Amino acid sequence: MKKALSMACLSAALLLPLTGCGNSSSGGNGEVIVYNWGEYLDPETLELFEEETGIKVIYDEFETNEIMYPKVETGATEYDVICPSDYMIQKLIENDLLAELNFDNIPNAKANIGSQYWDQSKEFDPENKYSVPYCWGTVGILYNKTMVDGSIDSWEVLWDEKYADSILMQDSVRDAFMVSLKLNGHSMNSTDADELEAAKNSLIEQKPLVQAYVVDQVRDKMIGNEAAIGVIYSGEAIYTQRENPDLEYVIPKEGTNVWIDSWVITRNAPNKENAEKFIDFMCRPEIALKNFEYITYSTPNDAARALIEEEDIRNSSIAFPDLSQYSGLETFRYLGEDADQMYNNLWKEVKSQ
Amino acid sequence: MIKTTAQKIYVGLIFLFLYAPILTLILLSFNASRTRAKWGGFSLKWYAALFQNREIIQALWNTLFIAFVASLAATVIGTVACIAINGMGRRKRAVVMGITNIPMLDAEIVTGISLMLLFISLGLKFGLGTILLSHITFCIPYVVLSVMPRMKQTDASVYEAALDLGASPVLAFFKVVFPDILPGVLSGCLMAFTMSLDDFIITHFTKGAGVDTLSTKIYTEVKKGIKPEMYALSTIIFVIVLLLLFLVNKSPREKSDAAIK
Amino acid sequence: MKNNKITGRLLSAPYLLWETVFILIPLGMVFYFGLTDRTGAFTLENVLAMMSAEHAKALWLSIGLSLASTLICFLLAYPLSMILAHMNVNQHSFIVLIFILPMWMNFLLRTLAWQTLLEKNGVINHILEFLHMPSLNIINTPAAIILGMVYNFLPFMVLPVYNSLVKIDPNVVNAARDLGANELQTFIKITFPLTLPGVISGITMVFVPALTTFVISKLLGGSKILLIGNVIEEEFTQAGNWHLGSGLSIVLMIFIIFNMVISAIFDKNGEGNML
């Protein structure tokens, strides 16, 4: 025992100097603290950025918008660049947590990103002052052709008892309510108490059929044939199809969420200039392409899309759907503190059933 | 005979239960497929990839650095605390010991939250520093727990005799008391090291941007699917500790036994 | 003598300061947030929120699952400790380390490994299928969470019980036998009472983390099963309502304090029985 202890301490002592080395490798041009979704860019692009600019990237990841917000709000960690979704950007703007961007420092943004995405951004950033679109997509149903009868075109399938214990639902409040609000024919930005109550009841009714509430784990579980049907972001569809050709992605006929995740800079960003350099770097066509190929989420970067070699991906109806063909498409809006609270409480009721 | 066989089977089953997940992780580290859901054949590529993966290596260093500094600091503070507590009156001692045990007996989630609230209201920036402070705090009780019983066994008169013979209190402590409590100090240190290494919940609430320990890194990765390099790393760590264990057990029994008693 | 007192003060001062800053003040802050609302006014609303249907349900479920796993841990650990204690006394340190060893493999990874084992197409079901046995479908159910709790916290029960068994003087047991007690009587009258402090210590070491976990339920319960730990964690990290989160924590602490009092009664020397 004694020996084990001294050995453990000794080995720890030997490791210590090495640790010191690991920490002191910061670059010469300061740093930039990036807060992004999990696995939402190609790590190589970070290295390229560091090599080129000498700016050290401190990289942190979040799972949902709801987890990101309190961290930014308390300011206990000073993030420079964040990549929230539409309605969260609106919430950040309304609560005065974002800095206006100086687009002179981000020339690649206006040059490469398609105009329709700037228009779409106006829903949450009316003057395009705060955000630069990074990825966009839809939310839909991913299903396994070998486990499902026929083809699927409606959210209703998520309430079909045939697929009990084979359904994966999204584990974030707005996405889950989006599905049931759309199913009941309501707007996914509803703040009507009755509509939300009905949506809650639908979710409670669905719960016994749900195998698990997950966010990004849908991907692994669908690849591994653990479930037949999952609610998923369109960006994951191409990746999962590559790994498991039996999978198919569909946008339900009742309509769905068309979302944009955009780069923003926090109001108190300690390294605002570096942050703008970072966003500009991410908007370069070849970098955006690298990221697209790694994460397979649709890029609003038209210049990057033109560089995609495979024809069927460049014109993929999953990655780059013609939105005019679908009805009932909406983008999330921030609904205010009270509505947030209402959604949270109802969601808790669902989860505690 | 039947009884001992039954006993052996029982112990075997429990060990299977304890080690089955570990075996699974080791197997996954040799899985050529990227997702945990498919077996893609035997491969050593994740071991090679591990050393290229800057984030995981950084998280490993962070984890070891935090565990090392926190356990060392907790050992020093905890040992000094034991001396101080030992010299206290009965009632005061009970109160101080009660408070000491709070981080150990309290729910980790409450400890984590309370420290998070403290750091936020102090305006501290979340990072390595806040993690270290939290880890030292929850490691101290484990040190006190293992040093205190030994401290009680030491004979106060020997220490006083040393003082009478002209030794300074510090010298007397290191010459007389310290050797006696050393086994307790060391096992407390190891306990603290292990606890710090394995902690997730408290780190989860007190970590800042870009400072990940293996635990928080894994928690982030769980959602997108664990990178197989992580399995490779865990396997390496496990094998190293296992080897150490066997090495110790091969050494003369009496010595290691004496250290326990 | 006076000198002694000053050294005593000097020695205890830093530690008392540490305790105050990092244990007492943080706990005080939990109480402050738990008993105030967003405007800073005193309220009991956050504490009473525990009685609302969804919170009460999560609490009862947590209590139920943690009691079940504590009981299972005890039932598994006691015979195991007795067997181990009788095996070979020289291997004391080896046995302790064998139970600590899994802790060097990360807690989250170990729990996640159970997901791989238990899944519908997981390892266990493949083996069962191979043996032509019915498949096991407990992933994402309370049973999987209990399994995860037992798995993670079993060492906390084994170690104190084992330690208290090893400490029993064999002469006491022999004396009982000499006086005519049979094996069962010896166990009930002598062995078990002597190990009670270890058992109590084990129970508290298992019950508290099981009651308050949010990770195990998340990984093995598929987020379908909301435990009180999950509610509190989400209040802090997602809903951003520290007041409600703190209020619920206060209720949770009542259970923990109850637990601490019990363990304090049985552990009069303040020694602990962990190692």
Q: How would you describe this structure to a colleague?
A:
The complex is a heterotrimer of chains A (353), B (261) and C (275). By secondary structure, chain A is of the alpha/beta class. Chain A starts with a helix and ends with a helix. The relative contact order of chain A is 0.18. In chain A, helix 7 (173-183) crosses helix 8. Helices cover 43% and strands 16% of the residues of chain A. Chain B has 261 residues and is mainly α. Chain B has helices at residues 2-29, 45-52, 54-86, 90-105, 108-122, 128-153, 156-164, 169-198, 201-206, 214-224, 228-250, 253-260. Residues 253-261 of chain B have low confidence and may be disordered. Chains in contact: A-B, A-C, B-C.
Overview in brief:
Chain A is α/β, with parallel strands linked by helices and 353 residues long.
Explain the layout of strands and helices.
The complex is a heterotrimer of chains A (353), B (261) and C (275).
Chain A: H1 2-23, E1 31-37, H2 43-53, E2 56-62, H3 65-74, E3 81-82, H4 86-94, H5 107-112, H6 115-121, E4 132-144, E5 167-170, H7 173-183, H8 193-206, E6 210-214, H9 218-223, E7 229-233, H10 234-243, E8 247-250, E9 258-265, H11 272-282, H12 285-295, H13 302-307, H14 311-314, H15 337-351
Parallel strand pairs in A: 1-2, 1-3, 5-6, 5-7
Antiparallel strand pairs in A: 3-9, 4-7, 4-8, 4-9
Chain B: H1 2-29, H2 45-52, H3 54-86, H4 90-105, H5 108-122, H6 128-153, H7 156-164, H8 169-198, H9 201-206, H10 214-224, H11 228-250, H12 253-260
Helix pairs in contact in B: 1-11, 2-11, 3-6, 3-8, 4-6, 6-8, 7-8
Chain C: H1 2-34, H2 45-48, H3 53-87, H4 92-100, H5 107-118, H6 123-130, H7 142-167, H8 170-178, H9 183-212, H10 215-220, H11 228-239, H12 242-266
